[in-house]
Amino acid sequence: MNLILFGPPAAGKGTQAKRLVETRGMVQLSTGDMLRAAIASGSELGLTVKDVLARGDLVTDEIVIALIEDRLPEAEAAGGAIFDGFPRTVAQAEALDAMLEKRGAKIDRVVRLKVDDEALTARIAKRFAEQGRPDDNPDTFKDRLAVYNRQTAPLLPYYEAQGKLVEIDGMGSIDAVSGALDGALA
């Protein structure tokens, strides 16, 4: 099964993806984690990514798609992928569909975690205070949230038209969201 967890930064996608990795053996393909790894590597790509994220912008489709494609064989071997933070645009969704189709696969389900923007801002401020991730700076986050909302809104009708979109309340406890997610995947 190939699953997309859809929602803005701090919606809980990473938390739920990690649980699915543990319970279902799937591979989490988190663009955020992959981008942070690129930054930590100190490579030229990492420095470019660091600059883009510090401005609150999104990295180019080409960079993200290349990172995803590199990890697909691992996900296929595990029986499925959880796409976390990808796709963010219709162009990325179309590229993902084409990439998977070439491999004889598809996206089976898209789960949107619905959350409140004010609650997200509070989550980010807490995470920034606890973890100090530069991309979680509360001021930068407002820009990231605005970019996310503007660029990803078209994905809802894209996946709804394919009959793959399921929406769940992402504002509950981790266990409540997990239960709703399990129901959406059943």
From TrEMBL:
Gene3D superfamilies: P-loop containing nucleotide triphosphate hydrolases
Gene (name only): adk
Database matches in PROSITE patterns: ADENYLATE_KINASE
UniProt free text on domains: Consists of three domains, a large central CORE domain and two small peripheral domains, NMPbind and LID, which undergo movements during catalysis. The LID domain closes over the site of phosphoryl transfer upon ATP binding. Assembling and dissambling the active center during each catalytic cycle provides an effective means to prevent ATP hydrolysis.
Complexes and interactors: Monomer.
Phylogenetic placement of the source organism: Bacteria, Pseudomonadati, Pseudomonadota, Alphaproteobacteria, Caulobacterales
PANTHER family: NUCLEOTIDE KINASE
Pfam families reported for this sequence: ADK (PF00406)
GO molecular function terms noted in the UniProt entry: AMP kinase activity; ATP binding
One Gene Ontology term from the biological process aspect of the record: AMP salvage
Subcellular location(s) of the protein: Cytoplasm
Family membership: Belongs to the adenylate kinase family.
Keyword terms, alphabetized: ATP-binding, Cytoplasm, Kinase, Nucleotide biosynthesis, Nucleotide-binding, Transferase
Major subcellular site: cytoplasm
EC number: 2.7.4.3
Region (NMP), start-end ranges: 30-59
Protein name: Adenylate kinase
Residues where ATP binds: 10-15, 127, 172
Binding residues for AMP: 31, 36, 57-59, 85-88, 92, 133, 144
